[in-house]
Amino acid sequence: MTDDFAAAKDRLTDALHAVLESGSVRKATRMLNALHPAEISHLLQSLPPQERDIVWGMVDKAAEGEVLLYLNDDLRDELLSEMDASRILAAAEGLDTDDLADLVQDLPATITSQVLASLDEQRRERLETALGYPEDSAGGLMNTDTVSVRPEVTLDVVMRYLRRLKDGLPDITDNLLVVNREGRFLGVLYLTDLLTNDLDDSVAEVMTLDVQPMPASLSAREVAHRFEQLDLVSAPVIDDDGRVLGRITVDDVMDVIREEADHKFMGQAGLSETEDMFAPVLLSARRRALWLGVNLLTAFLAAWVIGLFEATIQQVVALAVLMPVVASMGGIAGTQTLTLAIRGIALGQLSIKNMRWLLAKEMAVAAINSAVWALVVAGVAWAWFGSVDIAVIIAVAISINLLAATFSGALLPLALERLGIDPALAGGVILTTVTDVVGFLAFLGLATLFLL
């Protein structure tokens, strides 16, 4: 079923592209607005700037707010900068509180004030509550639109209450929050229990008590872990006094997971997860220049180490041929451990408490692999250059570099995190420096000692 849906969506977007190229604006507009806002945002992000402007002008004004939410930050900021205040206010109208909070944070202060002024008192208070928490926290993720009931009322009263709500029931409602008179969280009443128990039963008799609410200050990453581990559809969010502030639903958590995955993937190349594929040339160049500069400095460091052994390389030319092998083997081994450690931190499985166990295990793996592959490379070097000395030296150098790379790959992520540096962005660059410097130093140093 999923493959059929994806195929149908691809056919529709392909047809839209064809209609746009034919110049039939009216037909293209109808096709465009038949798409889900997420599909429209995907289409916008896949278009070059000129076509993007045309398509954005075709989007139904009532759908602009939702489309903006699905766009990456760069493109959303660009489109918002071109919209006047009245158009932004119209786009914000009708958005859920959590979605509106996400959008408002990207608006100029003057526009934000106008958005707040346009809301009724209750919705403005809810929005201000959501904006009072960091974007990457449970409070920043939550939707303040909730349905709560008291434990002493009967299920019949709850049913009549829900019927009066009609269209006011929040999306993805799988349970009702049970609170006391002060609004403190007590438990949840699942809709399945509401529908399958006697209507004369009280909420207290059928409510579930083992649902753990999430503190508003909880990190978004930890929220995602709890949803994954407990198979949650929604979860209540409380303040420090236990009062219910809102709830988080699985669609919000999916956004967190996707952003985290994008961050790790793009971070490997020193890019931001918000990078727009068709961003202006100068903007993209400026952003990428930083990591190119950092990489250049590390490359010069490795070159300096090689320069220290210039006389050795001139006398034994085989060393120049084999040097990249030593650095490359260390780089691969270190990257494997680095990736494992970064993933462990992201999933909350790795901390300073269990670091030594991971380090011991990874060093044992490195010792086995270094022994095996050092023998393989030594055999190739001996067969190639006919020198036992060179074979032994490269075998020892590879072993040293693999062990050093693994050690660095295991410790770097935690060390960088404690320094407030993102391991996904900086880890690879630093690890490359370590493996290059240690590899060249070990190989050329041993050659200097034993061949000259």
Explain the layout of strands and helices:
Blueprint: H1 2-22, H2 25-33, H3 37-45, H4 49-58, H5 64-70, H6 73-81, H7 85-92, H8 97-104, H9 109-117, H10 121-131, H11 138-141, E1 148-149, H12 155-165, E2 175-179, E3 185-190, H13 191-196, H14 203-206, E4 214-215, H15 220-230, E5 234-238, E6 244-249, H16 250-267, H17 281-307, H18 310-315, H19 318-346, H20 355-385, H21 388-418, H22 423-451
Parallel strand pairs: 1-2, 4-5
Antiparallel strand pairs: 2-3, 5-6
Helix pairs in contact: 1-2, 3-5, 8-10, 15-16, 17-22, 19-20, 19-21, 19-22, 20-21, 21-22
Keywords for this entry:
mainly alpha, 68% helix, 452 residues, 22 helices, 3-stranded mixed beta sheet, single chain, 6 strands, Tetracycline Repressor, domain 2, MgtE N-terminal fold, CBS-domain
Task: Kindly describe this structure.
Strand 1, helix 12 (155-165) and strand 2 form a beta-alpha-beta unit. This protein has helices spanning 2-22, 25-33, 37-45, 49-58, 64-70, 73-81, 85-92, 97-104, 109-117, 121-131, 138-141, 155-165, 191-196, 203-206, 220-230, 250-267, 281-307, 310-315, 318-346, 355-385, 388-418, 423-451, and strands at residues 148-149, 175-179, 185-190, 214-215, 234-238, 244-249. The longest helix has 31 residues, at 355-385. The protein has 22 helices and 6 strands. The chain is mainly alpha-helical. The radius of gyration is 29 Å and the shape is globular. Helix 19 (318-346) runs parallel beside helix 21 and helix 21 runs antiparallel to helix 22 (423-451). It has 3 domains: 2-136, MgtE N-terminal domain-like (MgtE N-terminal fold, Alpha Horseshoe); 148-267, CBS-domain (Roll); 281-451, Tetracycline Repressor, domain 2 (Orthogonal Bundle). The strands form 2 sheets. The protein has a 3-stranded mixed beta sheet with strand order 1-2-3. A 3-stranded mixed beta sheet has the order 4-5-6.
